[in-house]
Amino acid sequence: MSTPNGNGQSPATTSRQNLEGQNVENPFSLLGTAVPPAANATKRDVTITTGIVLARLEKEQVHYLKEDELNFEIRLRSGKPRGSIPIRKRQLKLLLDRVRAGLIKIRDRSSEVDPCEFRLVEAAVEEFDEEVRGFTGRQSTFLFRQLKVRIQHWLNRVSYWKASSHIIYEKQRMTMLKFATLLQRLELHAREWEEGEENGGEAEEDREETAAAQNVGESEELFSRSPVIPAGNLLDLESPVGTLSGHGRASRPSISFAPRPRSSSLLPPNPSRSEQTLQTAAYPSYQSINRSSERPRVQHLKTHHWNLKFSGAGDSLTARSFLERLALKARVYDVSWNDMLQNISELLDGVAFSWYLSRSEEFGEWRDFEVAFLEAFENGGGRAQLLQEIANTRQQKDETVTSYMSRLRLLLLRSPERLSGEVQVELAIQGALDKYRDLLSVSQLRNLNEVETRLKQMESVRVNRYEPEDTPVSEPKWSEKKGNQGTKDFKPNYKRKTPYYQQPSSFQSTYYPHYQAQQSFAQPFAYSQPPPPVVAQPAPPFSTQPQLSQPSVNQQPQSFFPPTVRPPEVAPVNDRAQRRHCWGCGRPGFTVRTCGCQSGNANGRS
Length: 606
What we know:
This protein is mostly helical and about 600 residues long. It has 4 domains: about 10-295, no CATH class; about 305-380; about 390-465, Retrovirus capsid C-terminal domain (Non-ribosomal Peptide Synthetase Peptidyl Carrier Protein, Chain A, Orthogonal Bundle), CATH 1.10.1200.30; about 575-605, no CATH class. It contains 23 helices and no strands. It is flat. InterPro entries: Retrotrans_gag_dom.
């Protein structure tokens, strides 16, 4: 994989023999003398050249990857990312199953490096360095597993770079070394944390005392545990694009970070103490850079739990009220104003958010933002308007003493000038209700606390009285009075009662529901007067009654009625026919046309 020299041996082999002659087995020396592989080198060739063992991605590790990392892993397995992040995670798990089943193969050839990839890798190195430096916890925590999986992903990702030039190869090799070192530091932090918990914190205290004795920070103390790598073998953390184009920095102190690896780490074991002394004497030492002083770490606040937003609209909070609530949140959650300035965009909305975006570069500290914020969103008038508002503060008729005094105290706190206690007492008495003002003017009050106490006493006396003074006694209406029958609004309560002789109809429970409503309206008129009493008629005398005898053969049977009495014609049994009658002769069951009388139209009525 490497070009042979004049002796027929590759530079890597020659360098390894020289190191063996010196009894030095430092892996960093091997990395410094290696040459870039061929243009068509595979991932395995790059791994052998750098001496770093790569790990395989498992299904249970997919959960820890982020969006860009998921996209790379999917494309690496000949897939196309689609859908949201949960969908892509399921897609990657299916691809891992297919790779394990042998249906698809992972791309093993190196690919051309995009300039954007350099910037992504550089940002990832800085991000992981901050996370690892501030990590505290065991190896079983979620953050440890997430950091380990993500760092391993970027280590595998850099191994696919195509080393088309010696500069790119050096950048690839050193970047892989940085990610491998971050893994070692992460495991070292977790192991020391576990040992500190087991030993009652003794390991942590010893480490802090050692760092204080050396007058270095925590990160420098971790970096100084391994031999210093030569400056020619390490690249700075500047963007590789500037290095490739020749615009990078000419000289910069190298960064020494390589803690003691564990037996399960990705790098070979650390050299012995004698070998470290040999290498330190062979190469000059460079001063390490304390990264904690380069950029202050910003605390990410959970502002969505604060329930506080400012939009700059007329119906929202005022600018002063927003800043006062913000100061209260900063005191409760122990937040510095620098962190508050970095997270203020999460609390702005609408016009206020647009204003902040247009001027965000002007705010170097919190004081600059506060002054510009008040100038932009505070109502005009300034000091004069605020003093006028304090003087015009009045207690409302239905407002409690606590609410009134709270409003007055807030306005006094916003005042640019500190008012004396006598002026504050006079303003509080002037703004109180009229029924309290006369009593307060007689009392000798020295501060607002005494004014509020006195007002609460008078308020409790008014509230606890049997008949409040300000509550008018409501007079009863004329319609509510009982017994005033002479007034025009008197309305007696009439309630219609069902007559005693009315029997409930069985037809109300039938299919026709409207029959009950019709009956309810018809009953009062039908039974407004009781029906006439039924008088029994006396029986006729016996002599006038027909004599029943046994008829002879030639004799017709006698009728029940006398011969002179004609039985009435029975009308057909029909409810509608029974209501009919001839209006000419009054014959029931017949009409004028069907009746045989002489006064009907059928017989030529005149």
